[in-house]
Amino acid sequence: MTEATTEDADDIGDRELTSYRALYRAQTDSADHFLRWKTHMAHAVRLEAEPGRIFDDYGGLTGRQLGEGARIAARRYALLIAEVPAHDATIVALKAEIAEAIERDEDEIRRSYGLRLLQASLIRDAERLDIDIAMVARPVPSALKH
User: Fold this and answer.
1) What is the residue extent of each domain of the chain?
2) Which pLDDT value is given to residue 140?
3) How far apart are alpha carbons 145 and 134 in whole angstroms?
């Protein structure tokens, strides 16, 4: 395993610093991350409804392949939400809604450990904030049900 040194950071440029600023500011934007997760999952469901359709303008990928790309995008936003400790019940509710949607999607469970990460985050947040997880659960949006 290699360790990073300060010498490795000698070439920090504007591009990296701009990216770090944006990432720092976005780390607590759970509401936006949730909306992006929801949008990408809805796109995945829509694309996967036509698994054999060929999208010539998009590298000849099929609906199934592009749907998987949309799921990958959704997972990234779910992980961003899971990573940061929740500061209130609203964020815990967003995490719970995502976890519940994934729990109902057997394909997603096979594809990723994202549910496990969300569940661990959700449990820890609920304990820390003294919130009953059952009280924040919401129904899964119909667009995400298979």
Assistant:
1) 20-141
2) 46
3) 20
Distance, CA of 143 to CA of 115 (rounded, Å): 19
What is the token pair recorded at 48? 């996967």
Phi-psi region of 44 (alpha: psi -120 to 50; beta: other; left: phi over 0): alpha
Between 23 and 62, name the one with better pLDDT.
Answer: 62
Each residue of 13-26: pLDDT tens digit?
Answer: 999 999 999 888 87
User: How far from 130 is each of 77, 103, 121, 125, 135, CA to CA, in Å?
Assistant: 25, 23, 14, 8, 11
* DSSP assignment letter at 54: E
The answer to whether residue 145 scores a pLDDT higher than 50 is: no
Q: Is the pLDDT of residue 103 over 80?
A: yes
Tokens 């490795």 sit at which residue? 8
The answer to whether 16 and 79 have CB atoms below 8 angstroms apart is: no
Contact 115, 99 (CB under 8 A): yes
Cβ(48)–Cβ(67) below 8 Å: yes
Cα first-last separation, the chain: 42
